[in-house]
Description:
Elements: E1 3-15, E2 21-27, E3 31-37, E4 56-62, E5 70-79, H1 82-86, H2 88-104, H3 112-127, H4 132-146, E6 168-171, E7 176-179, E8 190-192, H5 194-205, H6 218-236, H7 241-253
Parallel strand pairs: 3-5
Antiparallel strand pairs: 1-2, 1-4, 2-3, 4-5, 6-7, 6-8
Helix pairs in contact: 2-3, 2-4, 2-7, 3-4, 4-5, 4-6, 5-6
Amino acid sequence: MPLHRTEAVVIRSIDFSESDKIVTFFTRKFGKLTGIAKGAKRSKKRFGNTLELFSHVSLLFFQKENLGLARINNCTNIQIYTEICKNIEKIAYASYFIELVGELVGERERNEGIFNLLTDSLSLTNSRKFGEALARIFEIRLLSLLGYQPQLEVCLACGLPLSGKERFWFSAARGGILCNPCSTGLGRLSPISPGTLKMLLLARDMDFKKINRLVFSQQALTESKETISSFVHFQMGKRPNSIKFLNRIQSAYSLP
């Protein structure tokens, strides 16, 4: 069995037996990969705390030719997100990021852009409170990297370009925006202002190192949550468990 090493983020980890774990990683070189860590619950020397959710690690694994479960040989920490683990709201947002990657990216589909987006977003979540704005940025960039990005620049029906004067509506089923005349008779659509659309386009295209310069208004946060989040969940075919968890937390603690 060939031996491989790659950077990875733990996106799922479950107990398999009294001593083993089944762990799913999103890796830089191999995309999403699931493996078994033999003796992980007993061997602190080989694994320590590296198989916990959100762990950014250097992964060493064996792989059979039939591409079944990988055999996880060893993990060492690259970055420990200590602040995420101390804050329930940060845990909720980080859980949302890894759930989206786990659900929307296929097995063994290598995508270094998505790997960088995930690690950068976890680092930003760890270092400061970014909340809803970062969730919207993550969603629109992930959709773009997957090739699922909605049409946000022109009306899907007539091609009317985005301007500061027109009113637009978003359709998750159709995958984009419609101008006011073209939206008539199309059922339930979500309103979205030109300002919110321009903010989402900036969030999609801006250098991630400068992303903290983006300041979402309350209107932009509300509209983008109603539209982009609904489109992400439409692509998944379900409402993510992490969103349900986040909503319960925000209701209980009245988080902004």
